[in-house]
Design goal:
Elements lengths: L3 E8 L5 H14 L5 E8 L4 E4 L5 E5 L4 E4 L2 E4 L2 E4 L10 H9 L8 H8 L1 H8 L9 E5 L6 H8 L3 E5 L8 E4 L5 H11 L2 E6 L4 E10 L2 E4 L3 E5 L6 H5 L3 E4 L6 H17 L5 E9 L2 E8 L9 H8 L4 H13 L1
Parallel strand pairs: 1-2, 1-7
Antiparallel strand pairs: 2-3, 3-4, 4-5, 5-6, 8-11, 9-10, 9-11, 12-13, 12-14, 12-16, 14-15, 16-17
Helix pairs in contact: 2-3
Length: 325
């Protein structure tokens, strides 16, 4: 039986390079070799290349996304997109693969660009009555009126880089004095900022994926962080508890599952997604959506798949088959 050639895309152009490589290597490890021949393809600002088992690099021809190894030309059947941040999560790679006609596992380019831009995503969802935090937008070069910001969103509040992942460029601001340093930090990641009111309540992470041709909500994860919020250290250095399934009552579980499914369908999503919601005054509020969530064995989406009885081999194979179909 012939296998399909799958390029596992990893790396990228952002601060999340190493996290993406880790995700890509997990996909590489668990892909079913009876059906797929995986190639680890690194996406870097200098070039795109395949890295073999002996750490030898072979350049990808970007004209048609092919690879020459010795006398052999490798043509790919599909790309498994594990690039967090740009260009894998903001629509650039999605548009490229659509143009050259190679299926890829993430959502389409418009959905990727929309969800990667936190401000645009919230603006697109609000007319549908999706509850969100109160927010204030800033662009680099804008006058910073701290009084106006605090009058709008209150204290404490969150200052975030608009287009960034893994909590890079995010601060919780509790005093007026902390506002300028937080804005400066966010501008290091992006030239756009979103400032949001603090939502007091239980935070949950909800995975919605395309599985066996259907939009499927995975078991919910409750986030209990030791820090001020679910920051980089909480996400990757073990400074949080991720409890799957979440300790919610049945009514709240159904409420957030229905909302997450509604958001997935409203945005015309496909592939993997992981969204954060906070129960504020008893109602789940949408925070943001990740369309290329972390895929290490300890990451939230794989934890949720495991709780649903879906192995990583089945999860990854399903993503490829969905892309191919």
């Amino acid at each position: 039986m012939s296998t399909k050639n799958i390029a596992i895309l990893m790396g990228g152009y952002s601060s999340e390079f190493d996290i993406s490589v880790h995700s890509g290597n997990v996909v590489y490890k668990f892909l079913d070799r009876d059906h797929y021949t995986p190639y680890r393809v690194y996406i870097t600002t200098d070039n795109w290349y395949y890295l073999d088992e002996n750490e030898h690099k072979f350049l990808i021809d970007k004209k048609d996304f092919t690879l020459i190894i010795g006398e052999q030309k490798i043509v790919f059947d599909a790309a498994f997109n594990t690039v967090h941040g740009t260009p894998g999560e903001d629509g650039l790679l999605q548009a490229y693969f659509e143009l050259i006609g190679i299926p890829q596992t993430a959502c389409d380019f418009y959905q990727a660009a929309l969800t990667f831009n936190k401000r645009d995503c919230i603006s697109a969802l609000k007319p549908y009555g999706i509850p969100c935090a109160t927010n204030y937008f800033l662009n680099q070069g804008d006058e910073i009126n701290v009084k106006e910001i605090i009058d709008t969103v209150g204290l404490p509040c969150f200052v975030k880089a608009n287009k960034s992942g893994s909590s890079y460029g995010v601060s919780k601001v509790k005093t007026i004095e902390e506002m300028f340093p937080a804005i400066e930090l966010a501008y290091k990641e992006d030239d756009e900022i979103i400032i949001e009111s603090f939502l007091e309540g239980t935070e949950v992470s909800v995975g919605v994926i395309e599985y066996n041709g259907e939009a499927t909500v995975l078991p919910i994860t409750e986030i209990v962080t030791e820090n001020e919020f679910f920051d980089y250290a909480a996400k990757y250095l073990g400074e949080s508890q991720e409890i799957t399934p979440a300790r919610l009552n049945k009514a709240d579980t159904e409420k957030v599952k229905a909302l997450a499914l509604k958001v997935y369908k409203l945005l015309k999503m496909k592939g993997f997604s992981r969204s954060e919601y906070i129960f504020h005054n008893g109602e789940p509020h949408f925070v943001e959506m990740n369309t290329n969530p972390g895929l290490s064995e300890a990451s939230i989406l794989p934890q949720q798949a495991n709780a649903a009885g879906i192995s990583l081999t089945a999860l990854f194979g399903n993503a490829i088959e969905a892309a191919l179909s």
